[in-house]
Amino acid sequence: MPAKSPTGAFARAQAQGEAALRAALLDIAAGLLAAEGPAALSMRRLAAAADCSTTVLYRLFGAKDAITAALYLEGFARLRRRLDAVPRGDDPAEYLAALGRAYRANALEEPKFYGVMHGEGVPGFVPDESARAAAAASLDVLREAARACVEEGVLRADADVDEITDTLWAAAHGVISLERGGHFPGALGEERFRTLTRAAVSAFLP
């Protein structure tokens, strides 16, 4: 079955409104980045791939460099939606673990965005302070889950919630990066992720 063309995706998104149009264009931009590298993130190249005018792109993004910033923000926005969708149960420890699994799933299902989010996709790109703040906010649900674990006595009462969040994020990103690099093929990636994140949590147990 032939793949759907970017033109079709653009046309469908255009009919759905500006938010859908912007998301579709960012998907196309992420695909170009993955296939052709950072040089493909030009207004002219993206317009050609999406079969739209550069005027549309300038209206939605402002400038070429803004496309990379938009990819960065879109990646974290998708992560936040994924984490927010995790059901909250009665067990705070299981909820924290479920958020970790959702984080890994998002990273593996959105690889084109994940690279931009963590400085791998576009060399030289440095997000500004507001973009970094938005990225940090995407982990608020993880931070609140860690806080609940402290309040419920699952984790140490004197544990710093930000330290817990940063430690779990770092552990998750480290093993995911190795998995994405092909070092943990098949089911091994999930096994290593579970082992490392459990080890990170153990540092904060009572």
TrEMBL record:
* Name of one Pfam family that matches: TetR_C_33
> Keyword set for this entry?
DNA-binding, Transcription, Transcription regulation
> Could you tell me which residues form the DNA-binding region?
42-61
Q: Where is the HTH tetR-type domain?
A: 19-79
SUPFAM superfamilies to which the protein is assigned, alphabetical: Homeodomain-like (SSF46689), Tetracyclin repressor-like, C-terminal domain (SSF48498)
Q: Which Gene3D superfamilies match?
A: Tetracycline Repressor, domain 2
Instruction: State whether keyword Iron applies.
Output: no
Any one GO MF annotation of this record: transcription cis-regulatory region binding
Name the domain of life this protein comes from.
Bacteria
For this protein, the record's PROSITE patterns field holds: HTH_TETR_2
The answer on whether this UniProt entry bears the keyword Transcription reads: yes
Task: Spell out the InterPro entries in the cross-references.
Answer: Homeodomain-like_sf (IPR009057), HTH-type_TetR-like_transc_reg (IPR050109), HTH_TetR (IPR001647), MT1864/Rv1816-like_C (IPR025996), Tet_transcr_reg_TetR-rel_C_sf (IPR036271)
Can you say what this protein is called?
TetR/AcrR family transcriptional regulator
The source organism is: Streptomyces kaniharaensis
